[in-house]
């Protein structure tokens, strides 16, 4: 306890210089400690002044300072232990909004009470579809407006999933049927979550070793137009193996080395977003939506890559051609020098990069060879990389961050939980037959499957593409559209590339927006038109190639010397 008080006391010092060194047992704050540890306590009232623990001798003071430095992170911020019970009153008063907080608390309480009352009413069993549709709508609004409501979308998604399955258990013919449906849904959803967790961990390990420098350091050109195309296609192929979010983070970080802050660098970042989304659409492991379709059997590996490669290239090439004509590109000097120094690759970084990349590419091969689900191949790759990193860093205590346990603490766990909540929510609607009814309605009013798939891409620019694709999978089964049919390949393409039309339409766009502080309307004004042109051109390319592949054999069969007549 005395040690805790000594540590805490070292993080606080009198804010008013009039009192400094004039109170019993008070000594000035050590000047060599990070300033951010102390600045938050300045200019506050007197009751926040701490009496420092009296140092018994010089050795004890040094040991306390040493321990405090261990509790201080590399970013210069105090460990929460230092300030767990000391809060800046000015910060609190500046950020505290009692009316807003009261309204939020009331909304949560009202929702909880309404839900509790509703599940006890008999009308829920008789009107299950209405109750579930309302719950899904309210939950989805909470996800869309998470920034305004300050509710994390992962928490909203999990709450929505549980609530929907509670209603389903009430409205099902029997509890056993609901439990059977839930078990089936959980098994399918878990495959996707395990796959994502394994992939994110492998990518995080490679990134911790600076393995992607092997790719980014080979970009040597500084000519504006050439650099625009090179960055676009490097991101395109990188995203076909990694997920589009990781590819965007890697490439935007590279842009900071290639160009100073400017409109031109923003345009390069926008190209990264378009290329990352396009590159993820044509491989089963490039985007979470194509992974979902692949795991559930709507698409397979080789037909998808052959069918969607050209449309994905077109969806990138058209925006690149249009953006190459802008003044931001043509107005730059002939060359621009490096503006940031490269970070050093970790020891054995090349080995980790090769193994990590190899395990990701091996997943489809593993599925083809064994017939086991893809997540088993991903877990196999993670296990191999885990053993290798443990072996090459054995005894290196200063490199613990390069090992898998530390990587697990840095991956986007809340993103995986968001997918879990969304997919379980959609599976409840599918179990209740609501999605089938919606599919019948769309078939009756929109007879063209191409138009349905294309509209999914447009809507995905506003609404997250994961629930859209999940709902589509629930609406149409393989009996309606068989594996690798035109519809499923168009869904994979449209859901993957449609998010490029708005900066908030994909995880890649949101990451770029945060890293480069890009304004929503700047992207809409400068990039959205080009992105839409590429999206439409890709659909046209797919339909042209697909129809040509169908009509060409028929036409050739009618040629006399080819049909044997």
UniProtKB/TrEMBL annotation:
- Protein keywords: Antiport, Ion transport, Membrane, Sodium, Sodium transport, Transmembrane, Transmembrane helix, Transport
Q: How does it sit in the membrane?
A: Multi-pass membrane protein
Q: Which GO terms describe its molecular function?
A: antiporter activity
* Transmembrane residue ranges: 105-124, 130-151, 226-255, 267-285, 305-325, 351-369, 375-395, 416-435, 455-478, 490-515, 527-545
| Gene Ontology biological process terms, A to Z | sodium ion transport
User: Which residue range or ranges hold the Citrate transporter-like domain?
Assistant: 140-473
Which coarse location class describes where this protein primarily resides? membrane
GO terms for cellular component: membrane
Name one matching Pfam family.
CitMHS
InterPro entries hit by this protein: Cit_transptr-like_dom, NhaD-like
Subcellular location as annotated? Membrane
Q: Which family does it belong to?
A: Belongs to the NhaD Na(+)/H(+) (TC 2.A.62) antiporter family.
Q: Which PANTHER family match?
A: SODIUM/PROTON ANTIPORTER 1-RELATED, SODIUM_PROTON ANTIPORTER 1-RELATED
- The molecule here is called Citrate transporter-like domain-containing protein
Task: Recite the lineage of the species.
Answer: Eukaryota, Viridiplantae, Streptophyta, Embryophyta, Tracheophyta
């Amino acid at each position: 306890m005395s040690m805790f008080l000594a540590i805490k006391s070292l993080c606080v010092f009198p804010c008013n210089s009039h009192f400094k060194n004039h109170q019993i047992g008070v000594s000035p704050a050590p000047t060599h400690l990070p300033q951010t540890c102390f600045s938050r306590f300045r200019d506050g009232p007197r009751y926040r002044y701490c009496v420092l623990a009296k140092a018994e001798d010089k050795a004890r003071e040094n040991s306390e300072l040493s321990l405090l430095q261990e509790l201080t992170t590399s970013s210069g911020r105090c460990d929460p232990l230092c300030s767990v019970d000391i809060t800046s009153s000015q910060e609190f008063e500046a950020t505290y909004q009692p009316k807003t907080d009261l309204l939020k608390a009331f909304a949560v309480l009202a929702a909880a009470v309404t839900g509790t009352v509703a599940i006890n009413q008999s009308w829920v069993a008789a009107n299950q579809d209405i109750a579930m549709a309302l719950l899904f709508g309210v939950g989805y609004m909470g996800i869309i407006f998470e920034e305004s409501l300050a509710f994390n979308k992962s928490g909203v998604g999990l709450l929505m999933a549980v609530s929907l399955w509670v209603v389903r258990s009430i409205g099902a013919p029997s509890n056993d049927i609901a439990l059977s449906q839930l078990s089936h849904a959980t098994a399918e959803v878990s495959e996707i979550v395990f796959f994502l967790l394994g992939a994110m961990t492998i990518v995080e390990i490679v990134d911790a070793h600076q393995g992607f420098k092997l790719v980014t350091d080979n970009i040597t050109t500084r000519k504006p137009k050439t650099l625009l195309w090179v960055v676009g296609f490097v991101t395109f192929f990188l995203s076909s193996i990694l997920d589009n979010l990781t590819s965007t983070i890697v490439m935007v970080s590279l842009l900071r080395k290639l160009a100073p802050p400017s409109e031109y660098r923003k345009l390069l970042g926008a190209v990264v977003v378009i290329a990352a989304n396009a590159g993820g659409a044509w491989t089963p492991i490039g985007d979470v939506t194509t992974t979902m379709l692949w795991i559930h059997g709507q698409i397979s590996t080789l037909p998808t890559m052959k069918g969607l490669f050209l449309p994905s290239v077109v969806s990138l090439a058209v925006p690149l051609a249009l953006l190459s004509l802008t003044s931001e590109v043509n107005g730059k000097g002939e060359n621009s020098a490096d503006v940031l120094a490269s970070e050093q690759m970790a020891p054995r970084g090349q080995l980790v990069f090769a193994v990590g990349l190899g395990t990701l590419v091996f997943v489809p091969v593993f599925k083809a060879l064994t017939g086991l689900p893809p997540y088993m191949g991903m877990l196999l790759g993670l296990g191999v990389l885990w053993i290798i990193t443990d072996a090459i860093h054995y005894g290196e205590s200063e490199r613990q961050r390069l090992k898998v346990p530390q990587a697990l603490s840095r991956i986007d766990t809340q993103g995986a939980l968001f997918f879990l909540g969304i997919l379980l929510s959609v599976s409840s609607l599918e179990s209740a037959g609501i999605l089938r009814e919606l599919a019948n309605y769309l078939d009756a009013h929109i007879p063209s499957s191409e138009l349905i798939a294309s509209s999914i891409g447009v809507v995905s620019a506003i609404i997250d593409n994961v629930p859209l694709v999940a709902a589509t999978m629930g609406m149409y089964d393989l009996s309606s559209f068989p594996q690798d049919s035109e519809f499923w390949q168009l869904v994979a393409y449209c859901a993957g590339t449609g998010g490029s039309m708005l900066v908030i339409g994909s995880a890649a766009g949101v990451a770029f927006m945060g890293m480069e502080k890009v304004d929503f309307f700047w992207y809409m004004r400068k990039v959205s038109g080009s992105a839409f042109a590429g999206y439409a051109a890709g659909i046209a390319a797919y339909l042209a190639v697909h129809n040509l592949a169908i009509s060409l054999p028929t036409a050739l069969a009618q040629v006399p010397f080819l049909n044997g007549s």
